[in-house]
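REQUEST
  id: r-88c1
  op: predict_structure
  target: Crp/Fnr family transcriptional regulator
  payload:
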Amino acid sequence: MDPSLILNNVCKHIHLTETEKEIFTSFLHAKKLKKKECLLHQGEICKHSAFVLSGCLRGYSIDKNGTEHVLSFAPADWWMADMYSLISQQPGVLNIEALEETEMLLLSKTNQERLYAEVPKFERFFRILAEKSLVANQQRLIDRLSLTGEERYKIFCNRYPTLINHLPQKQIAAYIGVSPEFLSRARAAAVNRG
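RESPONSE
  id: r-88c1
  status: 200
  body:
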């Protein structure tokens, strides 16, 4: 396991000594998922935060009609968890699935608490992540209520530039809340304008 990507991610927000880096990486464990393999199923208790080294995860829920609602994607250098379940230790609402073969580092809730005790500055790091997630989710909700499908697609392209041509159109459509047919027309219009 090469910890450089996760250490670079952390060091964008907090400074770590070499000893603190060693403590942090000792709490991580590597995991690989095959395409379509789940890290978490709806109804399970989330016990880990996942940091993606390569590949891509998606977090989604399935409503009572069987419709999938994609809440987030986590390409390389992104974190993912069912935050409600991780914090409350109650059964979660998300499925977390690999969209392709994915390598990640997992930090258990137990080890995260131990990390806070041994390297208190990690409380600041995870607070920053939580704040950014809260802001992004609030903005996404406002966008969903006030913007057109085309405008939401443009925002998706800016937020996930590496995924635009990488993800199935169905996944992008589910994320921005439009039909795959609508997305196809929006993409064609963007190409014609481009």
